[in-house]
């Protein structure tokens, strides 16, 4: 349900479903991260899932850095909607 509602929010803003948008990609990575985190709470020694989680975290971090550089307003709005922390800037 949350995924469908977020897709509709993006499509209302851009007048078409754009699944390649940075916001949609960050949203899908966030749902995967939350699912893998709950899986790893039960299966602490699942190293392949830990590796996958680290890879997805890196991809999301790079996308968020790109969005921060290109459009700070959309970045702030996105992290507010997804309830995630801001990335550390160097």
UniProtKB/TrEMBL annotation:
Keyword Ribonucleoprotein recorded: yes
One GO CC term, this protein: ribosome
Keywords: Chloroplast, Plastid, Ribonucleoprotein, Ribosomal protein
Location of this chain's protein in the cell: Plastid, Chloroplast
CDD domains with a match to the protein in the record: Ribosomal_S15p_S13e
Major subcellular site: plastid
Transmembrane feature ranges: none
GO MF assignments: structural constituent of ribosome
GO biological process: translation
Family: Belongs to the universal ribosomal protein uS15 family.
Subunit structure: Part of the 30S ribosomal subunit.
HAMAP family from the UniProt entry: Ribosomal_uS15_B (MF_01343_B)
Designated name of the protein: Small ribosomal subunit protein uS15c
Organism: Neopicrorhiza scrophulariiflora
Gene: rps15
